[in-house]
Amino acid sequence: MPAAQRIGVVVGSLRRDSFNRRLAQALASMAPDGWALEIVEIRELPLYDQDDDGSPAEPVRRFKERIAGCRGVIFVTPEYNRSIPGVLKNALDHGSRPYGRGVWSGKPAGVLGISPGALGTALAQQHLRSVLASLAMPTLAQPEVYLQARDGFFAADGGIADDATRRLVQGWLDAFVAWVQQQADA
Amino acid sequence: MPAAQRIGVVVGSLRRDSFNRRLAQALASMAPDGWALEIVEIRELPLYDQDDDGSPAEPVRRFKERIAGCRGVIFVTPEYNRSIPGVLKNALDHGSRPYGRGVWSGKPAGVLGISPGALGTALAQQHLRSVLASLAMPTLAQPEVYLQARDGFFAADGGIADDATRRLVQGWLDAFVAWVQQQADA
Amino acid sequence: MPAAQRIGVVVGSLRRDSFNRRLAQALASMAPDGWALEIVEIRELPLYDQDDDGSPAEPVRRFKERIAGCRGVIFVTPEYNRSIPGVLKNALDHGSRPYGRGVWSGKPAGVLGISPGALGTALAQQHLRSVLASLAMPTLAQPEVYLQARDGFFAADGGIADDATRRLVQGWLDAFVAWVQQQADA
Amino acid sequence: MPAAQRIGVVVGSLRRDSFNRRLAQALASMAPDGWALEIVEIRELPLYDQDDDGSPAEPVRRFKERIAGCRGVIFVTPEYNRSIPGVLKNALDHGSRPYGRGVWSGKPAGVLGISPGALGTALAQQHLRSVLASLAMPTLAQPEVYLQARDGFFAADGGIADDATRRLVQGWLDAFVAWVQQQADA
């Protein structure tokens, strides 16, 4: 049996019990056959400083290697102040440098998020799309998924409790995997 | 010889001598073999009013038909007040309605623009990309091209005078055509 | 008794029964003493064409005059394709031209919207803010109000039915009027 | 003589010889009488993690205190991947938390940037404005200043070498100080 193809999942929040981290874990359990979703951590990355480009810290090297080994990347992110968290942008900046040696270019991307508010990270997602375009990442345009966190959103086993919501997210993930294949086959 | 495949070009300015219209015309003359670029006019479209969805005006019907017949769409647009012109957004709105009967979804898109200022329509282009994503149009992410209009930008025959700039735009157009094929082959 | 000070209200939808038009009307009935909110219509404006700058159509002249006579402007807008409607941007473009003779600069602005979806026009509002900044309109930053249209949102008399929502909108309007005064006193 | 009123300056780049840091220093030397511009460093801030809200690290406490003591804040930032650097957004996130105890709200803000490219940080600035609006910071709308870094941009004494550019930046700074006073007087 061939090894599953890897899709990296970058979570925009460092909080241990983050809704978005739990969503990423739920997502991982929903991966279709032949695909494996793996969370790529950003917690150990230093603040990006161009002066370090010549001798990147070990966590930077590791982060870039892991992203480079993925067939696609899913960003699961909260919204902070109507944008993406600084910690997520910091990871994107690290992965894009030094000039000419970034790891994002050409990698298919998907965007997802959950928040306590009704807006469901819509503004963070839209801004993230602009950044991903500048990184030359072909990004799944539709469907968009905006999730509102409520008590009981996650079942005891970590999955998405509500049937309709779970189907929505499964549909999104299937569309994303098809998108990754489409970009690769071309 | 098989008919050329059509790519629609929508110009964001109504001004007769618009730099962007002239850029669209120059672009049309640079189409690779097997492809034809055709400007799809937006000047006759009424202001979009949802009350007319049931009985669209003739120019609306025609506009949607022409877009529907294209393999991809290039938007060549100036920047008005740090965004796209209202007339261009009006055309996008018409093409997206009524719900479920829009013509944009799935059609590969490209974004280009020229302006007298140094920013070269960068803010208009970025906003347009967000709108195109919401319309489910897979949009060429890179290269981005920002052109500054100067005297002598266009040669007497309507082409782009400067060699380096012409090669830049030709490179963009070739990348766009490859993008259209890639999306279609998938 | 001195004449009330006028605040213009521009509605982003042309639909007769538009939720946003009804919200604008409800808002007008909530104006504090000494202030009058008047809807400034955009329906008769032609598509903006720079070639007409020298001889603007009568509706353009009238629109600009009415805006020029207002102490501030409230934009009440739906979201079309994750941005503001083209018809609203068209009105903004008209009011900004010709160069040096626009009517927006320095006029305090507020942004509001209602939509059937949960996002409540958040993406339209954010984009509109960017445009208003480029027009040099000092725009009330907080509170933001995102309203979701539901059956029974409006009472029989046209007001906002739900008490909490009405207080939210009244609070927003009071903050906006204070904002207009603050900018003027300076 | 009364103490000068303080304006904080936050630089979006950590690079030692950053153009934007040098621009911030040049700006500080141009402060009008009665005002002092002080760079507030962001380099020691940890990655924001909501789990630390209860016991913020010392650099976080210090950063928030210094911002709280300023009459206004100027952001001088490069553009990374068509947005603001993650390190700057990280500082904005820190200053905004925990909920109800942020330091940004109501503080007048200004946005400036310099980059090697022709776009001069236009896309970073526009995005930053959206974030500042969500933080309830009244932000100077016009003039906008987009600076392109070239050899010799800075004179030997650290000032801006070119006369016209220096006047442009001085005009911007004067407008910003007037903006700070206007917001405060209200």
Describe the structure in your own words.
Chains A, B, C, D: InterPro entries: Flavoprotein-like_sf, FMN_Rdtase-like_dom, NAD(P)H-dep_reductase. Chains A, B, C, D: This is Chromate reductase. Chains A, B, C, D: Pfam families: FMN_red. Chains A, B, C, D: GO terms for molecular function: FMN binding; oxidoreductase activity. Chains A, B, C, D: Residues 6-147 form the NADPH-dependent FMN reductase-like domain. The structure is a homotetramer of 186-residue chains. The mean pLDDT of chain A is 95. Chain A is α/β, with parallel strands linked by helices and 186 residues long. The first copy, chain A, starts with a strand and ends with a helix. Chain A has a 5-stranded parallel β-sheet, with helices on both faces. Chain A is built from 5 helices and 5 strands, in the order βαβαβαβαβα. The first copy, chain A, has one domain: Rossmann fold, CATH 3.40.50. The interface between A and D is medium-sized, with 35 and 35 residues.
